[in-house]
Design brief:
eight-stranded mixed sheet, six-stranded antiparallel beta barrel, about 35% strand, single chain, about 575 residues, 6 helices, 28 strands, mainly beta
């Protein structure tokens, strides 16, 4: 059902595409014929429209084929974690990877008529995956692409059995395809088919070779070939699919559902190689990973929506060093206000939109324990043109907070807070408009901030003009900041290891409101143009010297941020 909702936004067009793609279609073979890898049978052209080829640029700037995978959404690929994982570095640079859909010939140089090529912009691997150190448990990954796949009858997603309605029965035969190395050790050019029979887990455990049982983790199942073929290196990541007739039992309505992701097979040695086609093959059982798969897929969809618009401003006048801005010029600024006894109680702080359901700010902004604040409720206001709470405007959005994710290492040492950032989950999706967009976060540290770079803070002036104001601060890393004010005991108190600081450069201080929780952001030149990226969160702790501010460093908390965003759609994890 989730796939259907997503695909409602996409359709095929133009004479280039052979057949119209029906909204919601998945798992339909292009050539409907009786199916007859090593000793495998070559598939017909684009017979398996969900299968993709994954390539990676090597050190000589040549692209080499590494794995297969399956389309499961408009810009999401399902594959094996070990395909995008390096045993030594415990990671692999996905920015050097390319996915090709609609491909029949596995050669990078060969251009199939209907192929589409995409860059990988994000990868999601289960945090518990550790490669062979953990026996390849949780060998599953999702890859996000830089653009939407154009679906047709020869390029479409595989079906996923979200409701558990189409589980294969024991000893049922499924299909896997791939360009893996053939029996002569040569990478196949044509996509090969292998028929695999699902086998009982106990049988597999009792019959595999010594030393292989440790890889039979609880999230795996086994299969044996049924046509004198087997899978080889290079077939990894491909999907084992099973056919399910839909509707009136007409075989022409059959859809293919993915059950397993190829993780590995039993290795034969010596004379055993002659019978290697009888090896047990291991697949990651996606049924064991449905909650993660569901929430992570939705996270990628949300990240894609953010990526399209994040950090963009619609500037209507020439910038000067000091000026009063219009709200839509910094449209990621979220106003945190208070109510008490269902009445407006005051403006508290500002934060930054980072997701369709999430605002980032300082924990202090929603954690005042003074008696006067007892019974206060905090709410979020977006898209306001000016700070007039008595009048609503067409562009504004009002949200309630349903979950507070305080940093797990937050410590408040007599007002010198450490790791004081917080992510607020709101009750409904934020609508991105010209006046309301998220700020970008450099999750992969591709565009680092240089020392002495000029960043900005946008907040409300609640004392004078009741309008949004902006100030500039020169970036200083924590070591330079500490050295510059080594003789100031007061300032040293606020310099903790997870912070950076900035020096005010506007000339005169016009920040008359509360800037705690505001984002410290920088304009970066990236592939798609100029965008603003969040680098820090204004800390509540600061010296009386107005020339300097301390910021909780966003860059040091990327893993924490990512983990929370992955769980946003997992209602039980809120």
């Amino acid at each position: 059902m989730m796939l259907l909702l997503v695909l409602l936004f996409f359709y095929s067009s133009g004479p280039y595409w052979l057949n119209a793609y029906e909204i919601g279609d998945c798992g339909i073979k292009y050539n409907n014929f009786q199916q007859a890898i090593s000793h495998g049978t070559a598939s017909k052209y684009n017979e398996f429209p969900w299968h993709i080829a994954l390539y990676r640029m090597d050190n000589s700037s040549q692209y080499e084929y590494i794995c297969g995978g399956s389309i499961i959404d408009t810009n999401v690929i399902l594959t094996a974690a070990h395909c995008v994982f390096d045993e030594e570095q415990q990671d692999l640079d996905y920015s050097r990877m390319v996915v090709i859909t609609g491909k029949h010939n596995g050669s990078w140089e060969h251009r199939d008529v209907h192929e589409q090529r995409f860059e990988v912009v994000s990868k999601k691997v289960r945090p518990t995956y550790r490669g062979t150190d953990n026996r390849n448990q949780d060998d599953i990954a999702l890859l996000a692409l830089n653009d939407s796949i154009k679906f047709t009858s020869i390029v479409m997603p595989v079906c996923i059995d979200w409701g558990g309605m189409y589980e294969p029965y024991e000893e049922e035969v499924g299909i896997i395809v791939g360009w893996g190395y053939n029996e002569n050790g040569v990478l196949s050019e044509e996509l090969q088919i292998s028929n695999m029979q699902q086998r009982n887990f106990g049988e597999c455990r009792n019959n595999v070779g010594k030393g292989y049982t440790s890889f039979l983790t609880s999230d795996k199942f086994c299969a044996l070939n049924k046509d004198n073929s087997t899978v080889e290196q290079g077939d990894s990541g491909g999907a084992l699919v099973f056919s399910r007739v839909q509707g009136d039992n007409d075989t022409r309505t059959a859809r293919f559902f993915v059950k397993g992701i190829l993780s590995g097979r039993e290795k034969k040695t010596g004379t055993e190689k002659l019978t290697s086609h009888n090896s047990y093959v291991l697949f990651t059982n996606i049924s064991n990973h449905m909650p993660w798969l569901n929430s992570t897929l939705l996270t990628i969809i949300a990240e894609t929506n953010v990526r399209k618009v994040c950090g963009l401003r619609h500037i209507t006048k020439t910038e000067t060093v000091n000026y009063v801005t219009k709200y839509e010029e910094y449209p990621w600024v979220a106003t945190i206000y208070m109510t008490k006894n269902n009445k407006f109680f005051g403006i508290r702080c500002v934060g930054s939109i980072i997701h369709q359901r999430a605002i980032m700010t300082s924990f202090w902004c929603i954690n005042d324990l003074r008696p006067h604040y007892k019974g206060v409720q905090y709410k979020i206001l977006l898209g306001k043109n000016e700070l007039n709470m008595k009048e609503d405007v067409e562009t504004q959005q009002e949200l309630s907070i349903v979950k507070i994710h305080k940093h797990q290492n937050y410590v408040d040492w007599n007002s010198r807070a450490e790791n004081e950032m917080v992510i607020l989950i709101v009750d409904k999706e934020i609508e991105f408009t010209k006046s309301v967009v998220p700020i970008c976060i450099d999750m992969d540290r591709k565009v680092p901030i240089k020392d002495s770079s000029i960043g900005m803070i946008a907040s409300w002036d609640i004392d004078e003009c009741h309008c949004q104001v902006m100030a500039r601060y020169k970036y200083l890393d924590i070591d330079d900041c500490s050295q510059a004010f080594g003789d100031s005991e007061e300032y040293q108190t606020y310099i903790t290891s997870e912070k950076v600081c900035g020096r005010y450069v506007n000339g005169t201080n016009f920040m008359h409101g509360s800037d705690v929780g505001a984002g410290y952001f920088f304009l970066k030149n990236v592939t798609e143009g100029e965008r603003h990226y969040l680098q820090g969160i204004v800390s509540k702790g600061r010296p009386t010297h107005q020339e300097f501010l301390t910021f909780t460093n966003v860059e040091l908390n990327l893993r924490w941020i990512s983990d929370i965003l992955v769980t946003i759609y997992n209602t039980g994890a809120w």
